[in-house]
Fold this sequence. Notes:
This protein has 420 residues and is an alpha+beta fold.
Amino acid sequence: MKQIALIDCNNFYVSCERLFQPVLRDQPVVVLSNNDGCVISRSNEAKQAGIAMGEPLHLCQARINRYKVRVFSSNFSLYGDISNRIMTILKTFTKKIEIYSIDEAFLDLSHIPAPKCTEYLENMRDKIYQLVGIPVSIGLGPNKTLAKVAASYAKQKEGVLNYNALSQIQQDELLRKLLVADVWGIGKRSASKLKALGIYTAYELRQAPTNLISNKLTVVGSRLQYELQGYTCLEIETHTQNKKQIISSRSFGSTTNQLSDLEAAVSLFVSRACQKLRQQNSLARSLSVYIRSNPFSKNEPLTSLSDLAILPQASNSTPVFIKTAKRLLQKIFQQGVFYKKAGIALGMIQDTSQQTGIFMTDPKNSKLDGIIDQLNRSCQNPLLFYAAHQPTKKQTWQMQRSLMSQQYTSSWKELLLVKI
DNA sequence: TCTGGGGTCCTAGGACCC
DNA sequence: TCTGGGGTCCTAGGACCC
């Protein structure tokens, strides 16, 4: 039988903040999304204080005050750096690893003798804590879905749970306790469809007639059902695929009705996306731009505008896409609307080597982009910008991150100081 | 006053062709 | 006046994930 492990960092962003401020260890802590909008990571104490995942800050402010919850803006460059350290350690255990998200990885440990597997996982957990200081939970099962199930219970079991080592009765018991809405891949919609069929738990989903599930939840549901039964439908993907779409978008700190503000924002998003595009050695042919007003506004109706352009030739040149983005923006822009968010997406992505036709990328532009990438990669805050971003102007639309911790590991200026 | 961002996969339905 | 049906490709939108 296969042995698939899921390593899941506990309350990852909160754990990263605690790493550099140990005094937070027993305190309730939350980390907020961009613009300090929603809660996106909670310590166990904060969960007990009744703060929900994704809850808007302004709705839980009273509870935060009452329970003296410590609040942080998100510090993604710090979290990314800590994540890299953990993934590097995991790679010493096996080459068959899929980095699934910033705080999760699947490992194929089928080569480890089954009786030794639990001990192997405990060793892994201890090593990560010892070397990086982040607590993790590890679940192991015959496939990804059951590894996920095991990991969700591992949090109560000293961080490690080996589903394969359980008896049939224990496995059934585990699935009976698990609500179907908490199964990986079952969201709100699917959960309510299943509820209508009288299916409430993972166990009931596993036992349900297969044609019923495929009718109601399509092949996606069928795959999950098979995986709950112990078959493999979702393989581990060991090499990172190039992105098929690259999105860059942000909500603004405050709204704006100025085209020039939107142009500056969109130009910045295009530069970020193009840099990612070049990083994976790709070209894109389509660019879409969208802008919208505040969907939560009680006074103004929602305005959401977008348009897409397809270039005659695939490109990864920042100036080419900035020019196109501005053209689209001018086309869709409506006067008198107060905009809260803008974004761009690059699509029709292909490998650099796939480029055909006689028009190649302008060598001058591509050399310039290369130099900008190189300089900006070597430092925390970009050194070089296209003038279209208006970097020297104070931007009213920029993000609010008033509660951010230091860049302890990713900025020379903000390294942790140790006094001895 | 204050509600994230980035990504994937799947499907239904329209356009088009023979 | 009669006005098919099957196949492919593409896209928008739904659903879900972290």
